[in-house]
Amino acid sequence: MKDVWRDLIDTVGPGRPDLVGAMEERRALGIERYGAPLRLDDGRDHVRDLVEELLDGAAYAWRLDHTDLAIDLLELVAWLAHRHKRKDLTPLWRGRSTPRVPEGGPPPG
Question: Which of 9, 33, 37, 103 is the 20 to 30 Å CA partner of 25?
């Protein structure tokens, strides 16, 4: 079983040492709450989990008057639904040939 946080920290951490502490805290919180770090093969729907977290993030950004960030996060949600061809998430991108992706975000694939 692959420890997602450990892999992310080991891969991204050297280039972003400013974020390592925060990532380590999130990993530790997961272990404390669930008895194990986040794993790829845990049976969860990781696309849906990500969509739900991004939707929450958009609401928090909106509440803080970061409207551009909120809209970018919502566009990223639409991109994920489109990219993963998720019928259960189809309403998020229906009617758009390709969702707009925030600058610096992943390219439509």
Answer: 103
Kindly provide the b/e burial profile for residues 6-45, where b requires at least 16 CB atoms within 10 angstroms of the residue's own CB: eebbeeebeeeeeeeeebeeebeebeeeeeebbeeeeeee
Q: Are 76 and 68 in contact (CB under 8 A)?
A: no
Same domain, 19 and 56: no
Q: Is the pLDDT of residue 49 over 70?
A: yes
Residue 10 lies in a domain: yes
pLDDT at site 103: 55
**What is the C-alpha to C-alpha distance for residues 102 and 94, in angstroms, rounded to an integer?**
18
Mean pLDDT for the chain?
A: 83
